[in-house]
Write a structure and sequence with these properties.
alpha/beta, 18% strand, 44% helix, Rossmann fold, 5-stranded parallel β-sheet, 2 domains, globular
Length: 276
């Protein structure tokens, strides 16, 4: 069935019946709502664990890998966040579903390299969770290229994108980026630094736009410069978006999603016109 997410994400592909999803949550209301919604949307049968002991047993009883875990911060038997620590230590991709949001809590969660966190404090919480799950299960279809001459910056962006299940390629120069794009026409998003020694982000974008349009490749520019006019110059060069460092994970992921959603919508419209 077609799925339209709260943020505008559209998905009409196949179901995810083979995905093994663990739900560590002790609220009967939320376990019922989440289980019903994921079955309805994606044909996913969620494994429900209402305590830390049940979570451990669920992991131990099967050798099948866990695709994704959804976990409350506190569970019976793990009132101090031990369940989340357990999942993170096992390198299981995890979305936190919590009713508590404080700045300190948010920082601790993001430091654990979780996939996402969803707050229970609104009527759209379950739909937001369903969208986050759908994105994680489909992000591997997107190939993203990171272009930056800084090894640290490349590693940081790469780790962020891989956390969300994207396929990632990296280039340490504009010239290398052009080579990778030529060899990998499935790349749908490029994130490029502005200040690079061989070809800066503006020139790289101009060269790419000479042969690849926005309907094939979205381009996000990034920079640590305090010059706010860089965004205008970059957009005029053919870029689709621009972000000044430092940016927070939620903002970064939102902008990546928006650009990829736009790309898919454009491609879908072009296919419909071609058929008509």
């Amino acid at each position: 069935m077609a799925f339209l997410g709260i943020s505008g994400m559209q998905y009409s592909g196949g179901m995810f019946a083979d995905a093994r999803i663990i739900l560590a949550e002790d609220s009967n209301v939320f376990t019922s709502m989440i289980g019903k919604r994921l079955k309805e949307l994606f044909d996913i049968d969620v494994e429900i664990c209402r305590s830390f002991e049940e979570l451990q047993l669920s992991y131990d009883k099967s050798t099948d890998p866990i695709t994704l875990a959804i976990s409350n911060i506190n569970l019976p038997g793990a009132e101090n966040g031990e369940a989340l620590e357990y999942l993170v230590d096992l390198s299981i991709p995890t979305i936190v579903f919590t009713g508590t949001f404080q700045e300190g809590m948010r920082d601790k969660l993001m430091a654990k390299d979780i996939v996402d966190y969803i707050l229970k404090d609104n009527v759209f919480a379950v739909d937001l969770l369903a969208e986050s799950i759908c994105r994680f299960l489909t992000n591997h279809r997107h190939h993203v290229l990171i272009v930056d001459d800084s090894p640290t910056a490349r590693a940081l962006l790469s780790s962020r994108l891989k956390r969300y299940n994207f396929r990632v390629s990296t280039a340490d120069s504009g010239a290398k980026a052009l080579e990778i794009l030529k060899a990998n026409r499935d790349i749908g998003l490029m994130i490029t630094d502005y200040n690079m020694p061989d070809i800066d982000g503006f020139e790289l974008t101009r060269r790419i736009r000479a042969s690849i349009g926005s309907h094939e490749l979205r381009i996000i520019g990034v920079s640590s410069s305090s010059n706010r006019l860089l965004s205008a110059r970059f957009l005029k060069a053919g870029g689709n978006d621009f972000m000044l460092r430092p940016f927070i994970d939620e903002e970064f992921y939102c902008r990546v999603n928006q650009n990829l959603d736009t790309l898919l919508q454009i491609q879908s419209m072009r296919k419909e016109r071609a058929v008509a």
